[in-house]
Amino acid sequence: MKKLIEKRAELQDEMDVILNKAETENRAMTDEEVKRFDEIEAEIRAIDVTLEKKDKARKTENRANPEEKTVEERAAAEEKAFCDYVLGIATENRAQLTEGANGTIVPTTIANRIIEEVKAQVPFFQYADLYETAGKLSIPVYSEDSENYINADYVDEGTELTDNVGKFITVDLEGFVIGALALVSNKLKNNTDLNVADFIVKQVAKAISRKLMKEFTIGTASKISGVISTPTIVTAGAAAALTYDDLVNLKQKIPQAYREKGAWVMHPNTYAAVLKLKDGNQRPYFEEGKPILNRPVIESEDMPEIATKAKPVVFGDLSGYAIKGAKAVEVQVLREKFATKNMLGILGFAEYDGEVADKQKIAALQMA
Questions:
Q1: Most exposed of 59, 205, 357, 360 (fewest Cβ within 10 Å)?
Q2: What is the pLDDT of residue 253?
């Protein structure tokens, strides 16, 4: 079905190309174009009929098997079972839940929603090279430097090209477990207006997101390594103040091929300092909300601020930063632990790792 839909879109595009070409050239379609146009129309009609028949067949099958649930119905049942479990309601829906590696309840629907919410709250997931897998991951990275690179040159008869080549290095990503605890008041969970599933997803995702934002930015020794750990360094001209030239030098440190997809990472206070930079006529170089030197800004409160020898700014194509992301989040409900506080604990576990895989793509500005 998916391939048929994709094929239909391709045919529609081809039809548009034929029409647009004739219109652009201010002429009627040629006989050959008319013939091909009619063929495309026939193919699209055939696909539409096939899709319609398939849809009818699916509906007939569902009527024939009334106990067969749709994806949406199964997801709703699983979410209802989880909410009942959290609220301490004993129902037959409990069968929808499974046990995880940590002895925790793993509702797939809730876990997937938490993961998607985390991705939405942590900008690094939009830019970095993401691998969603379990266990150790070894990433081969092609590396070139001043001694190891692929060379192109003139070739005179009887001479050979220099056989310098780049080399592959391996970046290993482990799986470090991150736990996030969200507390829910028993009064709150008894509020019939509260969507329990939404509340839990948002609270657990927010806690995991805060931790990951910090780790992907500055990291922790022997754990996740942040983007600030890049070995490619540009030294600022001063110890306590940024200049326009510092930003230009940092951006230009990245090879031109990678600058187009580059992004800045800096603390909100550093960003404020950058916005205050002015030219000789006291006009600001940059506007808030606008790109800095044509590249977007990621604000992270975990980045160091401007200070002697600190690294307050990172720039580069963040696809050079590799993230091994969780394929699943395990959720545990803690009733007795917080009973004396009249609260319920929701504990989420997820595995992540991150490291600068391609040092050519990411550089850091270090204050003098």
A1: 59
A2: 96
Q: What is the model's pLDDT at position 167?
A: 60
In single-letter form, the type of residue at position 331 comes to V
Please tell me which residue, 265 or 61, carries the higher pLDDT value: 265
Average pLDDT of span 281-306:
95
Q: Look at residue 267 and tell me whether its pLDDT is greater than 90.
A: yes
**Residues 325, 103: contact at Cβ < 8 Å?**
no
Contact 270, 243 (CB under 8 A): no
Q: Which two tokens stand for residue 26?
A: 């201010």
Measure the CA–CA gap between 25 and 18, rounded to whole angstroms: 11
Please count the residues of the chain: 368
Q: How far apart are CA 207 and CA 184, in angstroms?
A: 14
CB contact set of 266 (below 8 Å; sequence gap of 6+): 274, 297, 298, 299, 300, 303, 312, 313, 314
Return the pLDDT at 296: 95
For residue 258, what are its two tokens? 């990678």
Element (H, E) at 366: strand 362-366
pLDDT in the model for residue 100: 63
**Cβ-defined contacts of 203-206 (< 8 Å, 24+):** 203/346, 204/114, 204/180, 204/329, 204/331, 204/346, 204/348, 205/114, 205/117, 205/118, 205/121, 206/121
Beta partners for residue 182, in sequence order:
346
Q: In this structure, how many other beta carbons lie within 10 angstroms of the beta carbon of residue 114?
A: 25
Handedness of CA 23, 27, 33, 35 (dihedral sign): positive
Residue 19 in tokens:
């029409």
User: Are the C-beta atoms of residues 324 and 137 closer than 8 Å to each other?
Assistant: yes
Q: Which residue has the higher pLDDT, 1 or 302?
A: 302
